[in-house]
Amino acid sequence: MRLRVFVLISLSCLAQAISPNLLRLGPQGVNLWKLEQLHASPKPALFVQDASEINHLEHTVIKPEFTALWFEQPLDHFDKSINDTFLQRYWINTRHYKPGTGAPVIILDGGETSGEDRIPFLDTGIVEILARATNGVGVVLEHRYYGESIATKNLTTDSLSANFMANVQFPGIDENLTAPGTIWIYYGGSYAGARAAHMRVLYPELVYGAIASSAVTHAAIINWEYMDIIRRYADPVCSEHLQKSIETIDSILDHRILSTPLKALFGVHGLKSDTDFVSLIESPLGAWQAKVWDPAVGSPTFDNFCAALSKPVGRKTADVMSLEFGHPKRMISLPGGLKVDLAIVNYGAWIKEHIVSRCPEGSTQEECFGTYDDTQYQGTSLKEIWRLWLFQVCTEWGYFTTAPPDPTHPRIISKRLDLEYESKICRQAYAPGIHFTVPPLPNVTVVNELGDFDIAMDRLAIIDGEVDPWRPDTPHSDYAKDREDTILRPFKIIPNGVHHYDEYGLKNLEDEPPEIRKIHEEMIAFVKEWLKDWKVSRDLEEGK
Ligand SMILES: *[C@@H]1O[C@H](CO)[C@@H](O)[C@H](O)[C@H]1NC(C)=O
Ligand SMILES: *[C@@H]1O[C@H](CO)[C@@H](O)[C@H](O)[C@H]1NC(C)=O
Ligand SMILES: *[C@@H]1O[C@H](CO)[C@@H](O)[C@H](O)[C@H]1NC(C)=O
Ligand SMILES: *[C@@H]1O[C@H](CO)[C@@H](O)[C@H](O)[C@H]1NC(C)=O
């Protein structure tokens, strides 16, 4: 008999989560985010699960071991005459902590999402792995404004993390573990990875060591390289079919006559703008970065999409599939005189089924997928959490994902996706305020002057994924100088790795795939070496 278990999970926290990954949020991205929220029920729901499926839920159910703790922060860090404070949320893992051993604190920066999304890293991921190896205390610190650490005034700086490290008293721990008296190792992945690198540079006395994984230390206004990584590393047949589909779609749109039947093929004959149309059909590509080596947390969407592109259609059989794109036997005639390769027919069917179907009854396609009505981006309630990361994008980080500026460069997104289109959301969503006006384009110098591709320091580890679409913005970019990989300055690439693959872990390292187990063992090794250096420098100070 199969054991049936009832599990109650609150979906409200899931709905809060933007995504565990750095998002590309163009105007269409915001539309799709909103539709996703509609489908994530805001009310707690009762699920019936087989015990065999329970592991898949583990990452969404918060174990009682990790209850939220709160640290009081000053609201305005620089103006001492303002006494207001807000509470910043954090969680700790003390399973492996051995008092009195000089054990470190391993802190994970929550980055641009609710800190709850990061709890798996405290439980089985990188924080647990390093805390276990060093008898340390693990911490996840929620980023100000995200999740529940919402202060009502404006953003200041990374100094909040510094204040936390220098002053926190962990409940249940008597030892004074504040920095700089205790070793703090600062970990971050993605945007938080850039923060980890910046923290090591800005607060060297508090941050003894830092690990910057998939760290986007290079801010860029145009980020066309993101899609180019996907083009270069996706399954070659899929990549070629995407490229040729997009070429075909662009030329059909150029000639206008057949653009309505083309849009109809994708289920959006009612969408006015061609650019809105091509940005809509770009959306499955965003699933590439959601791949994770652990199938319990990774998204299969990209691979499913690729597989769907080469499905037989109608009376076309499997042997037709191996013919070249555009071969007469692969062509399908459609109403309105349109005749296209079956990859495009499959592409249309996929978009219709997985994206267009999200548009609720009673809304027009224009309301769901149009991006030219400014008012749809002007809601400012605290529910509109897409505004948070987008604000950072519009002021300092950029990363507008456009087609390659060189028109002859191969591409898997439409040439119509240009900077004007991708960045118009900044002007639509942030009307000039009394105190602050979002600049016409982000000032990426603010980020890049902290080190950019060349950011380096002793005990700052740089870890990246070979096929991470964000790699072009990290010190492992093809534009960056090569470096040596040393214990003091680790510089490691995970073969076939996507976005911060080292952040995820399994309870037993032996169960991890070889490349992941290898990087984890290397990380444990260099952190342990760093800890030895601390002992040497302290012994020297104490005259031993
Ligand atoms: C802040 O607190 C200090 C001492 O606690 C007090 O003297 C001062 O008036 C307070 N300032 C404001 C603006 O409330
Ligand atoms: C942020 O808030 C402070 C008051 O706490 C204000 O003086 C400052 O002008 C604000 N800055 C921005 C960029 O809004
Ligand atoms: C912890 O130690 C630091 C010196 O490393 C000291 O400044 C701080 O006051 C101590 N905190 C507590 C609560 O004892
Ligand atoms: C951009 O930021 C840099 C560094 O903070 C600053 O020096 C520069 O004046 C800013 N540029 C503009 C146009 O605001």
TrEMBL record:
Gene3D superfamilies registered for this protein in UniProt: alpha/beta hydrolase
Organism domain of life: Eukaryota
GO molecular function terms attached to this record: dipeptidyl-peptidase activity; serine-type exopeptidase activity
GO BP, one annotated term: proteolysis
Pfam families associated with the record: Peptidase_S28
Signal peptide span: 1-17
InterPro entries cross-referenced by the UniProt entry: AB_hydrolase_fold, Peptidase_S28
Keywords of the record: Glycoprotein, Hydrolase, Protease, Signal
Electron transport in keyword set: no
Family: Belongs to the peptidase S28 family.
Protein name, as recorded: Peptidase S28
Species per Swiss-Prot/TrEMBL record: Gymnopus androsaceus JB14
